[in-house]
Design a protein that fits this description.
By secondary structure, the protein is mainly α. The chain has helices at 89-114, 119-153, 156-165, 167-183, 186-193, 196-208, 214-232, 244-264, 271-293, 303-330, 334-338, 344-356, 362-380, and strands at residues 37-40, 46-49. Strands 1-2 form a two-stranded antiparallel sheet. It starts with 36 loop residues before the first strand and ends with a helix.
């Protein structure tokens, strides 16, 4: 998720009001490699979460996290809340395009890191780096004393919930996602992960009481038809001969990200603070799992993989989140910025071909078009 690679789902509406933050993921990260769409509040201003790409036509009245991750909603009176700046559409586009550019590189960065690191080692390094980046951003904003006061002022129940959500993101989500990338070509894993917003629609039925419309059902069918086309390369009989486990893990990652998004949807914590709590709680779990099931990755011979992992942590899990948040605060219309995410998966294929040397198959493009069409169909609903 991210986060994607990385954003929060939801339909978007044009508004002249200053939008709430939207977040992710992802892009890729959050769902990795692009990830962000908006949910619409009852007042008409979009809330956001930016960790993974993919819009979803849910109206939650407050947004969840955004890939590579996703920020929590920007609500009046929320702990750590900063006054919304004046709209500046030009700057909003610049931040939005910078975020999309980052999301477009993360699938490639995942695969480069996985050439030398296993999924747990990649997650340990990227989570630690992301936590440092988020801490630096918070310290620049508030200072050490101010950050301590913000944490003290935040409702303990919400801080605890953010910590518990760290089990889902980064721990469970990225373990599953990175394992999927380890088993699959990047051009397969990235588009499949992009279906997380469709998964959110399905989970919203039992968990949120959402009534799925015919348009949404059609969007689900179209998107998952794209997954089938990509996974089978156009030959359904060949599925058994492909990496079914990898495709299954990529789909499971969308379930984990959707559950994280739902759990974080109405958090009153300031987005960056909430994500910091997620990663601070998740890091010990990642460290324990790495030491138990893998090995300590900080070795000189692994330096190229470590550099790629640090890039994932700094950009997919950290900077992209903040840039998307900034874009959503500055824009006059969340819909204009939210539509940028649909460039991400196609740009990502370009980096995959250029830097990884994968030959992009026609079925990958056809399947991705179906997945994006399903997301767009759902968004218009």
């Amino acid at each position: 998720m991210t986060t994607p690679h990385g954003s929060s789902p939801g339909g978007t509406t044009d508004t002249t009001d200053t939008p709430s933050d939207m977040t992710p993921g992802i892009g890729s990260a959050g769902p990795s490699g692009g990830s962000a769409s908006t949910s619409t509040t009852s007042t008409g201003s979009p809330a956001s979460t930016a960790l993974a790409p993919g819009p979803c036509a849910l109206d939650l009245s407050a947004s969840g996290p955004s890939a590579p991750g996703q920020p929590a909603p920007d609500l009046p009176g929320a702990a750590g809340q900063r006054p919304a700046p004046r709209a500046d559409q030009r700057k909003a586009y610049l931040y939005g395009m910078a975020t999309v550019a980052i999301w477009s590189t993360v699938a490639t960065a995942f695969k480069l890191a996985l050439r030398q690191l296993d999924p747990l080692q990649l997650l340990l390094v990227s989570t630690a780096v992301s936590l440092l980046v988020l801490a630096a951003i918070l310290l620049v904003r508030h200072g050490f004393g101010g950050l301590v006061r913000e944490l003290a002022a935040a409702p303990r129940r919400e801080v605890l919930r953010a910590a518990l959500l760290g089990v889902l993101n980064p721990f469970a989500y990225y373990i599953v996602l990175f394992k999927a990338y380890a088993l699959l070509p990047a051009q397969v894993a990235q588009p499949v992960n992009y279906t997380w917003a469709i998964t959110l629609t399905l989970l919203s039925v039992p968990l949120l009481g959402h009534r799925v419309t015919r348009r949404e059902l059609l969007a689900v069918a179209v998107s998952y038809a794209g997954v089938v086309v990509i996974a089978t390369r156009g030959d359904v009989a060949a599925l058994a001969g492909g990496n079914v486990t990898g495709v299954a893990l990529a789909l499971v990652s969308t379930v984990i990200w959707a559950l994280y998004w739902i759990g974080n949807a109405r958090s009153p914590l300031e987005p960056v603070l909430g994500l910091f709590c997620n990663f601070a709680a998740g890091l010990p779990l990642v460290l324990a799992a790495t030491l138990w099931f893998s090995s300590w990755p900080l070795r000189a011979e692994l330096l190229p993989g470590l550099a790629a992992a640090a890039y994932v942590g700094a950009f997919e899990m950290g900077i992209a989140f903040v840039f998307w948040l900034k874009a959503m605060r500055l824009t006059e219309s969340a819909a204009r910025i939210g539509n940028l995410i649909f460039f991400s998966p196609f740009l990502s294929l370009g980096f995959i071909a250029l830097l990884l040397g994968e030959r992009i198959l026609p079925t990958t493009l056809a399947g991705l078009v179906l997945i994006v069409a399903g997301n767009l169909l759902q968004r218009r609903g």
